[in-house]
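Audit log entry. Action: structure prediction of a protein-small molecule complex. Ligand: adenosine-5'-triphosphate. The ligand was supplied as SMILES and no pocket hint was given, so placement is left entirely to the predictor. Protonation state taken as written. Sequence taken verbatim from the request; no trimming, no tag removal. Recorded inputs:
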Amino acid sequence: MTMIKMRDVVKEYPGRGRNAEPIHAVDGVSLDIEPGSIYGVIGYSGAGKSTLVRLINALEPTSSGSIEIDGEEIVGKSESQLREVRTEIGMIFQQFNLFNSRTVAGNVAFPLNIAKVEPAERNARVKELLEFVGLGDRAKAYPDQLSGGQKQRVGIARALSTSPKILLADESTSALDPQTTSDVLDLLERVNRELGITIVVITHEMDVIKRLATHVAVMENGRVVENGAVYDVFSNPQHPATRRFVSTVVPGAPEGRELEVLCERHPGRLIAITLNDSGTGQREVLGRLVRDGVGAELIAGGMHEITGRSFGHLTFALTGDDARVDESIAAVREIAEVVELERVDAASAKAGA
Ligand SMILES: Nc1ncnc2c1ncn2[C@@H]1O[C@H](COP(=O)(O)OP(=O)(O)OP(=O)(O)O)[C@@H](O)[C@H]1O
């Protein structure tokens, strides 16, 4: 059964000022998030990501549409019914939201106290969770004595305390440095793999999606403009917003100033080759490009590993007799997507500007 099923979900806020149009923070979103997946939701500031998360854990009422959590409709439920649904959902935050007056153990125990779990069972659970997140020796510390990464580990342990089926992570690594981000993402991956918890990751960083997610939805102006398996979306982005996000982690064919610089540095004809995991490798490409009278130099691009599958762009400068270069290009076209780039020279680009 689908873990989170959204159909035509709308969240409307009153507009600011008199006679202002209402704000559609979420505007007709339909998504299926399957059990065991790590679903990334990416978008620029104001796209509606945080609102979507607040609707999933019913912190705010949905204006219209349907949200099913593990088969159970949550839209229109009473507060007491929602409390039960919320125990199925853990949440972590950008600013960690820990209680500074409580110890690490006290923070993790907090949801268990509310759920009236017996002390012996509660203490055992807290110990087990702190071991799981690698903080077994910090139970008595206070949040102020911890680094950002450690605080987020406490946040994760607390979110897992009631054994939820779903973990919502709202910009959970945005306040952390790159190494700490990487450690926290590794931990989230373990939460998913070892505990089988479905994770929804809200972020504005495509790197987080690339590292962690199995699926991605791109949001713009309250709508999902594109979604699917991460590899499919990365290797063939359709919407301009998706292309912009993908280009931040997987550079496409060079353009603009980068292309100008490459043209300044390299003579010949430039071609950009797109490779996916359909079997064609770099070696095969080179074998077809290089022939008598044709020189091929790799001048930009690289391959990327996305959900265990490879994908990337390679840009070559080809020198030699035009007819022979044509043959090389035709030979590569048989096995890969090839685009010939129009040369630009900086002087004429400036003159034209
Ligand atoms: N409580 C509210 N009242 C009125 N408007 C709101 C409210 N919450 C959000 N909005 C508006 O809804 C839109 C989406 O906001 P939301 O915070 O969900 O976006 P976001 O993608 O999470 O952005 P950010 O990354 O900056 O948090 C924005 O235009 C925002 O101003």
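Audit: result stored. The chain is about 35% helix and 30% strand. The two ends are 56 Å apart (CA to CA).
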